[in-house]
Amino acid sequence: MPRRKGAPEVNAGSMADIAFLLLIFFLVTTTIETDAGLDRMLPPIEPPDTDVVIKQKNIFTVNINKNGQLLVEEQLMSLEDLKEAAMDFLDNGGAPSGSPEYCNYCKGSRDASSSDNPQKAIISLKNDRETKYSTYITVQNELVGAYNELRNREAQRLYRRDFTEMEAEYLNPETPSSVRDELKDKVKAVQELFPQKLSEAETSSN
Amino acid sequence: MAKFAKKKEGDLPAVSTASLPDIVFMLLFFFMTVTTMKDSSLLVENQLPNANQIKKLEKKDRVIYIYVGKPTREYVSVFGEEPKIQLNDKFANVDEVGSYILAERAKKPQELQNVLTTALKVDRGANMGLIMDIKQELRKVNALKVNYTTYEGDAFNNLQ
């Protein structure tokens, strides 16, 4: 009986079918999305021990009614103008020069009847129980956008980079830790220039 | 006759499919690496709103999901048209949110328990009343870090 040369070749013709089967399984059971969204901190439930007195001029009130209309500082406003108005308020720097609260990086109108400085400025958001979620997200997005734009401006001035870009790199787990440590200080510094003070009151039911 | 048939050049040689498995495996590995497993099937409609000032939720193991929306078509007859909360694989009431968060938190390793984020995946048609109730529940169990999950896009598209 003649000996064969080597082992017989295995037929790999069905390999493609098996691979396709696996591929289709993964296509069906997985999703490609990576989640992204607006990060927010809720206020702790226990009220602060000491009552803090906040001047009315340091509060920027935004009310959303059930039809999605905005009442900003007692005036009706369209959503398109909200970001601009919030930026004007935050960047106002109304404290007179020489006082300890003077804001030396603000580029606003320095109106004495608006906010003293960005550290003091608070945006108060109030909405109705029947407000649509999509409207609420749009308002949140515009307010966060106002903060981000101002922070970007300061980050450009100090570090020649956008704040949002630095923050994304800082939060990305793939960034090497040496870079992150360096970024951490910068991110913190810019955040302190324009701290995000966005308070949300309980909804009104009427 | 055989002579003629041999000379004929019209027949194309068969395309070799030997590299097909390689190509398919390449696709397979691509999908295996860039996608993630679905952890629960949706019982509610979940058309998220758009926003452009968004941050990515980087670490999936630190996230607890809460879905809110109108029940999908097959559940409308049972649960009605009003937006409902979905926790894991079932519908829930507002007062169950707190215990759900605590249970999920207890499942995570000790070192992650303080850095958890609650991702609210809310349909754009939902009302804020329900969201406010959920937020109140989250505050009660001290889960203060929330993420309103959105799609990336122009926020003004939400208003149409």
Structure description:
The complex is a heterodimer of chains A (206) and B (160). Chain A has 206 residues and is an alpha/beta fold. Chain A has one domain. Chain A is built from 5 helices and 7 strands, in the order H-E-E-E-E-E-H-E-H-H-H-E. Chain A has a 5-stranded mixed beta sheet with strand order 5-4-3-6-7, with helices on one face. Chain A is elongated, with a radius of gyration of 27 Å. Chain B has a 6-stranded mixed beta sheet, covered by helices on one side. The longest helix of chain B is centred in the first third of the chain and has 15 residues. The N and C termini of chain B lie far apart (74 Å). The model of chain B has no long low-confidence stretch (mean pLDDT 84). Strand 2 of chain A pairs antiparallel with strand 8 of chain B, so a sheet runs across the interface.
Indicate the topology.
The complex is a heterodimer of chains A (206) and B (160).
Chain A: H1 15-29, E1 30-31, E2 36-41, E3 59-64, E4 70-72, E5 75-77, H2 79-90, E6 122-127, H3 133-159, H4 163-171, H5 177-193, E7 198-200
Parallel strand pairs in A: 3-6, 6-7
Antiparallel strand pairs in A: 3-4, 4-5
Chain B: H1 2-7, H2 20-34, E1 36-37, E2 50-51, E3 55-56, E4 63-69, H3 73-79, E5 84-87, E6 90-92, H4 97-107, E7 117-122, H5 128-140, E8 145-152
Parallel strand pairs in B: 2-8, 4-7, 7-8
Antiparallel strand pairs in B: 4-5, 5-6
Labels describing this entry:
heterodimer; A: 206 residues; alpha/beta; 5-stranded mixed β-sheet; 5 helices; 7 strands; 39% helix; 14% strand; B: 160 residues; Nucleotidyltransferase, domain 5; 6-stranded mixed β-sheet; 21% strand; elongated
Whole-number average pLDDT of chain A? 83
Give the count of helical stretches of chain B. Answer: 5
Query: Uncertain runs of chain B with pLDDT below 50, 5 residues or more?
Result: none
Instruction: Give the integer mean of the pLDDT values of chain B.
Output: 84
Q: Distance between the terminal alpha carbons of chain B, to the nearest Å? A: 74 Å
Proportion of residues in helical segments of chain A: 25-40%
Largest sheet of chain B: 6 strands, mixed
Uncertain runs of chain A with pLDDT below 50, 5 residues or more?
none
Determine and state the CATH class of the domain at 50-151 in chain B. Alpha Beta
> How many distinct beta strands of chain A?
7
